[in-house]
Design goal:
8 helices
Length: 174
């Protein structure tokens, strides 16, 4: 659901001419200028045709997941993600490939283009107009979610999403 909401935010910001679907990432994130990641379009991120893998394929990301398997994204920062993206070699012929990483990058671009945190943009432009007052990207909403469980049925805590906020959202129940 969250990817559809982020895609809706992208479409809305395009319609309002805050950005354009065929803008490159480097237009909004000059720190990626001249890299394959910087040359990706927002359209390619939103349609999973950027060539980016599902998650960053790095020792830093693997170490983050292994250090805290109960909250695997917590220790992976936006700076870590940008470092990985700067070093990413790109792909000659991108095809459809589901990518949480691509949506995480898209969320960061939307923040830059909108001049606000993704949570605020999502609330103002998508959730409040739809009457979804109890949904959002704010971590404090995670406490009101249904308790998650692992594959053995044991309760698990909510994840700290950090640099991957765009692919996930939280909703208050009741």
């Amino acid at each position: 659901v969250t990817k559809a909401l982020v895609g809706s935010l992208l479409a809305r910001m395009d319609a309002q001419q805050q950005l354009h679907l065929d803008d490159t990432v480097e237009r909004w994130m000059p720190e990626l200028a001249g890299t394959p990641a910087g040359r990706l379009t927002l359209r390619s991120l939103a349609t999973h045709q950027s060539g980016l893998p599902r998650l960053p394929l790095s020792l830093r990301f693997l170490a983050s997941m292994l250090r805290d398997p109960g909250d695997p994204y917590r220790r992976y920062s936006q700076a870590d993600m940008l470092d990985w993206l700067r070093d990413w070699g790109g792909e000659a012929k991108p095809e459809f490939s589901y990518s949480n990483l691509g949506f995480a990058l898209l969320g960061q671009v939307l923040e830059r283009a909108g001049g606000q945190p993704l949570a605020a943009l999502m609330a103002a432009q998508i959730l409040r107009p739809a009457g979804a007052e109890g949904a959002g990207l704010e971590p404090e909403l995670a406490a009101a979610q249904v308790q998650g469980h692992d594959e053995r049925g044991r309760p698990t805590p909510a994840w700290t999403i950090g640099a991957f906020a765009a692919p996930w959202f939280h909703a208050k129940l009741g």
